[in-house]
Each structure stands twice: as structure tokens, then as C-alpha cells.
Amino acid sequence: MATASKRRFGQIRKLPSGRYQARYTGPDGKRHASPTTYEDKDAAVNWPTSERRLLEHPEEWEPPKTRLVSARKRITFG
Question: The sheet that has 3-5: what strands, in order across it?
Fold first, then answer.
């Protein structure tokens, strides 16, 4: 069973695989998970911290999955 820890912003939980997943509740009221899992807890803590910085400008904020898709569309070869 996964275990979660309480934090000021976001949550870090240990998955049954032993890896860690980070997530947070966005301004849209939905829970957003990190696009990847992490080997150790320290690495997982960095993701919600960087997401929190993005929330300083909520009018420009996009959910992580939307940003990931947008970033992939911007890649061009020419």
C-alpha cells in the first residue's frame, strides 16, 4: 500500500514499487501528479516546489499534462 506524507504544498507518496510520486491540488481544484516517478524522496520533493513557483501567476498556469503536450508540439525539425 502506498504511504503519503503531509507537506505544506503538495504530497509525496511512496508507491508499492518503492518509488515516489509527487502531486498537488491545482487552482482548478483537481489533483495533478508528476509526469514521472522518482527513485528517492528528495528528488520527488523538487517537483511540487517548482510547480508552486508556476502558481505565483495563476492566470498563466496550465495543468502539468497540458504543458507537457504543448512542449512536445513545439519541437520542430527543419
Answer: 3-5, 11-14, 20-25, 31-33
Q: What is the CA radius of gyration of the chain?
A: 14
**What DSSP string runs through 12-78?**
EEE-TTS-EEEEEE-TTS-EEE-SS-BSSHHHHHHHHHHHHHHTTSTTT---HHHHHHHHHHH----
The three-class DSSP label of residue 3 is: strand
CA-closest candidate to residue 70, choices 60, 78, 58: 60
Of 49 and 70, the structure prediction assigns the larger pLDDT to 49
pTM of the model: 0.69
* Position 74, amino acid: R
Give buried/exposed letters for 48-68 (b at 16+ CB in 10 A, else e). Answer: beebeeeeeeeeebeebeeee
